[in-house]
Specification:
With 466 residues, the chain is α/β, with parallel strands linked by helices. Helices cover 50% and strands 11% of the residues. Helix 10 packs antiparallel against helix 11 and helix 16 runs parallel beside helix 17. Bound molecules: zinc ion (ZN). It catalyses: Endonucleolytic cleavage of RNA, removing 5'-extranucleotides from tRNA precursor. Its cofactor is Mg(2+).
Length: 466
């Protein structure tokens, strides 16, 4: 800032880059700089340039959103959108400003927009919402506002970070008078603090039938599959399933082979063979279907034949996007059929739209997706959790909210850390022998890079699970 003063003393105007940076800094420290200074710089910048580029627009948005004139930022948002993607930092600044200024509809609108674009809202947006909850007049309103936030966490499968979960815990405790503990939920899905069983991921017969019948028109017709594969291929595949099905496990062959990373092609076929071996050794009477591509046959005839002995293989044309085919095969095989893939299938979820079908698909996926991950011994299969891993309540007096404690985890791993909060004191029902509950959060520090990550991790995991 003294550099700007220096330029002023010299009677010189700062150049655009300097002005842009200065504006950004003033926005971050509006308490020191004062709102008038930020707005004055903003107008100075507008006088200098007619059309702001993406970088200048970003500086302007980050600065304006710290002032009462935050709505001026919205037109610059439209401007950036014309040039490039809007990043999470910019979206979060808008959401935070909207919440702070009481324009909740606009705030939620942009929060939903960014989530649909698979960008994670920054902590500031959630923290500001909790501050708004605290300001609410009565307890019912506080609770209802908090539930609005929890609904979004559920819908977009967001795991709040430590500062956010602490502020949520604080609101439940000070605002609503509830009791809370931080817990690690074991595989059984039973909370060690209150002994409650987390929701099972059951899907009713009717829901499954709807998923079976709606998957093709909603997901496959809207995807590349029907553009890149011929109708004959689709019919041939359906005939194959009728003849050879049902299967107990369907493997996305190409995805499983990619676990080998950039190693030679031979390694890819070894990886696929290991996945199928593991599946067969675990369920001796199970019927495994591997969906692959024609070119995979060339990788290694020996391995390919070995897989063929253990499983049915269906190879699609090389150009076919086979992710839809393997899900279709699993759905047609019935409720119990599992899928093996490390893809999070987010594009499928989005193609299902915003209704209950998407929720059903997510539950089905969580219940049936076996993850294959590389390990020291070659490959490891991770069975799906038996309980729902999003925030949940069983009545109006309890919530279990999963949060991200900052421990390193791959994109396919879910955090094990939860906040257990309830209207009644915990002490009466707590399992006193358990050591996996705490009254303070145990956090692992986040790095800057974590904040920039998008919702979608790498589709092929690179972390080795021991
Ligand atoms: Zn609990």
């Amino acid at each position: 800032m003294s550099y700007i003063q220096y330029l002023k003393n010299q009677g010189r105007d700062p150049n655009l880059a300097t002005l842009s940076l200065y504006l950004r800094l003033c926005g971050q420290r509006v308490v020191d700089c004062g709102e008038e200074r930020v707005l004055e710089l903003y107008h100075q910048l507008l006088r200098k340039v007619k059309v702001l580029d993406a970088n200048l627009s970003e500086s302007v948005i980050l600065a304006l959103t710290s002032t009462s004139q935050w709505k001026l930022a919205l037109k610059h948002l439209t401007n950036i959108r014309r040039m490039c993607n809007i990043n999470a930092k910019v979206y979060s600044a808008i959401v935070t400003a909207a919440f702070r200024n009481g324009d909740y509809n606009t705030g939620w609108h942009y929060l939903e927009t960014m989530c649909q674009e698979e960008k994670i809202p920054g902590d500031s947006a959630f923290l500001e919402w909790v501050t708004q909850c605290e300001k609410a007049e009565d307890v019912e309103e506080k609770q209802s506002m908090m539930e609005t936030l929890l609904d979004k966490l559920i819908h977009y499968e967001i795991f709040p970070k430590v500062p956010v979960i602490e502020s949520i815990a604080n609101l439940f405790s000070k605002g609503l008078g509830w009791s809370y503990l931080y817990v690690k939920i074991p595989k059984s899905g039973r909370c060690p603090a209150c002994n409650q069983q987390l929701h099972q991921l059951d899907i009713s017969e009717a829901e499954f039938k709807e998923l079976q019948s709606e998957y093709v028109p909603r997901v496959l017709h809207g995807s590349d599959i029907f553009r890149s594969s011929s109708p004959e291929e689709w019919h041939k595949f359906q005939e194959f399933l009728e003849e050879r099905g049902p299967f107990s496990v369907v493997v996305d062959g190409l995805n499983a082979s990619y676990l080998a990373g950039k190693k030679p092609l031979r390694q890819r076929s070894v990886m696929l063979k290991q996945v199928v071996e593991k599946l067969c050794s675990r369920a001796r009477n199970g019927r495994v279907l591997v969906i692959g591509r024609k070119h995979m046959r060339k990788w290694s005839e020996v391995d390919f034949n070995a897989v063929k002995k253990m499983a049915d293989i269906y190879t699609l044309d090389n150009l076919t996007k086979d992710d839809g085919f393997f899900i279709y095969a699993a759905l047609q095989s019935g409720q119990g059929t599992k899928i093996v893939s490390s893809d999070m299938l987010r594009d499928h979820l989005y193609r299902l739209g915003d209704g209950p079908l998407r929720e059903t698909f997510r539950r089905w996926q969580r219940q049936h997706q076996v993850l294959a991950v590389p390990s020291v011994a070659g490959v490891q299969l991770i069975e799906p959790a038996s309980f729902s891993t999003t925030a949940q309540n069983q009545g109006t007096t309890d919530w279990h909210i999963p949060y991200d404690d900052g421990s390193p985890r791959a994109s396919y791993q879910l955090p094990k850390t939860w906040l257990c909060t309830q209207a009644n004191p915990h002490s009466s029902s707590r399992d006193t022998h358990s050591v996996i509950w705490e009254s303070t959060v145990q956090s692992v520090p986040f790095t800057e890079a974590d904040n920039e990550k998008s919702l979608v991790g790498p589709s092929l995991p690179s972390i080795t699970v021991l």
